[in-house]
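Quarterly update, task 2.4: beta-D-galactopyranose-bound model.
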Amino acid sequence: MNKILAGGMTTLFAAMALSSSALASDVEVLHWWTAGGEAAALNVLKEDLKSKDIGWQDMPVAGGGGEAASTTLKARVAAGNPPAAAQLLGMAVREWAAEGALGDLSEVAKKDNWDAVLPGSVKQFAINDGKWVAAPVEIHRPNWLWINAKVFKDNGLTPPKTWEEFNSVAQKLKDKGITPLAHGGQPWQDATVFDDVVLGLGGADFYRKAIHELDPEALGSDTMTKVFDQMRVIRGFVDDNFSGRDWNLATAMLIKGEAGMQLMGDWAKGEIVRAKVVPGEDILCVPAPDTEGSFLWIADFFAGYDVSDEKRPAQLQLASSIMSKDFQEAFSLVKGSIPARTDIGPDKFDACGKRSMKDIAEADKNNTLVGSLAHGTAQTSSVQRAIFDVVTQHFNSDMPSEVAVAALQNAVEAAK
Ligand code: GAL
């Protein structure tokens, strides 16, 4: 047996042993929320369930963006031993539903009237074939630029609004020996930056054409060449040790002032809040360059898997708790997100949360609300992976932009 297979089997058996000791009133949840701010947010859910006499069986699979979690989940389902619930991004909800692997949450969704309190963008993933298959926990915005206010003040800089301004402030920081951009070289993090650049340089309509519709003309356009040009410039603004760094360690560099900026979704705010630093004051949040007026969105869902009847009540309770008004607010305050429910006001949120709520409403009205590729809200997993590969290869080599554009077109064609 080869090593990878053997490793996978060991994980699988360990997971099976764990789940067979579960009580019927336990709910086993597979997720990738292992960073400090994420774990703290998850605790809000664990406590809520505890108060309802439901035990939490933790199945964490570390790795931002959820790629490793997805591999473990596939193995569990293939072995006929799915967890009661798993954290999924939108397109993954669709893919699992198409496989017929998800349980039906409609009973609780109808009772709690989810239909009336969720936006259409979220419902298009949570409902499949007329059935509710997943409960959204929150909404995150990946197109944020986080700025260390002290670093900027000390160096007489103002937050950049455009990529041109970004390049200019980043160069000034670099000249002073400060790492301009805290970044972790992992494919999903590279893709998070790529998303921002495509949206910034192309605008929401271009993003939709290229990334959602995979329009060959948009993918092969001059704008896309410029996107890769900008990615190359950004590559010059990260430190030498960026490769493989976890996103939360990059956020720690930003908080400590070891770097001036980070392009990251607002789960970074979970780390900021936990470090007792004030978002909007000590760490500023501005839309990623040139993306003001547009909103890239993602939601984390918990989907229920098809489990035995005795595990169903705990699974349904989990879904009901996730969608309760109190939970949605309490969770997002810790996680850095905004509630998925539209009937929760901004009062308790900080400046960045308030801005997110306002911006998403406006973007929805103006048709500039777009699902993020990097975070599973735009493409099937195979197309997503194909684009990640090109973006990461380009970022880590001297590949000219024209070559990257051609590679992007080919990879997308092959993966479609
Ligand atoms: C995203 C997820 C976020 C966040 C991030 C880093 O895919 O939706 O909630 O935790 O990964 O792990």
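Highlight for this quarter: The pocket of beta-D-galactopyranose is lined by residues 32-33, 38, 64-66, 89, 140, 247, 267, 298, 300, 375 (CB under 6 Å).
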